[in-house]
Amino acid sequence: MASLLHSRLPLSHNHSLSNSCQSFPCHLPGRSKRSTQRLLEERSYDSKRSLVCQSGIDEVTFIEPPGSKEAKAELIGSLKLKLLSAVSGLNRGLAASEDDLKKADEAAKELESCAGAVDLAADLDMLQGRWKLIYSSAFSSRTLGGSRPGPPTGRLLPITLGQVFQRIDVLSKDFDNIVELELGAPWPFPPVEATATLAHKFELIGSSTIKIVFEKTTVKTTGNLSQLPPLEVPRIPDQFRPPSNTGSGEFEVTYIDSDTRVTRGDRGELRVFVIS
Predict the structure, then answer these.
(1) What whole-number distance in Å separates Cα of residue 219 and Cα of residue 229?
(2) Which of 54, 139, 185, 250 has the greatest number of beta carbons closer than 10 A?
(3) Other CB atoms closer than 10 Å to residue 234's CB: what's the count?
(4) Are residues 256 and 127 in contact, defined by beta-carbon separation less than 8 angstroms?
(5) In whole angstroms, how far apart are CA 152 and each of 35, 155, 161, 255, 260?
(6) Which residues pair with residue 164 across a beta bridge?
(7) Long-range contacts of range 123-128, CB-CB < 8 Å, 24 or more positions apart?
(8) Are 51 and 17 in contact (CB under 8 A)?
(9) DSSP state of 65
């Protein structure tokens, strides 16, 4: 029958787990004293918590103290709210100042540090769904391409950016960037509303990096011109593609839960999404 070992140290102590075991007998059934100590030394000890070490003949299980998971979940929730508050009111980053960019980045780093590394290899289904972009640090460059080539926003080309979504299907490996646009037209014509869908395929690299490969762009007019058929723009052959536009990219998912996702692009872009 498995034995149960409880060790409690005063908060003022700052010893390793192996040192704490020297103060009292610590021997697991079926193992030598040296083997037992080596197993225990492989786990770090937080002296501010109580440790429960449940041992059996062939394994040792370390159990977190009751309430520690709940406390961490509460802290993560608080840091997530801090990030969402930092990026609210910035028009997805188009209105972000340098100070706004810094505050958003610091809030994201706090959340990422507290939540720990993302492991999509264990649960790729977390990516599934339609995600709404609420912030991109790249949009502060005042172009729709961010740090990549893209049409400018402003008087030279009157484009108003609407909602931006990512639609991800983990079964088909489809990864679509969907952008709602409003293109200005000369008076007296009304602006043209359209939705551009940039279709990609994706693959998971390692535990949290996503690689996407562009396939085609489809533009569909909406509003008064919704009856027009969609226009499909195929992928430019690689030999005619400029070096700055390879047709592929990578980003790392640095935080994800059931309704919020944070990513960092291969050019440093910070993006925040919520499930739509």
Answers:
(1) 9
(2) 139
(3) 8
(4) yes
(5) 65, 9, 11, 30, 28
(6) 179
(7) 124/170, 124/204, 125/170, 126/256, 126/257, 126/258, 127/168, 127/170, 127/210, 127/253, 127/256, 127/261, 128/168, 128/169, 128/170
(8) yes
(9) P
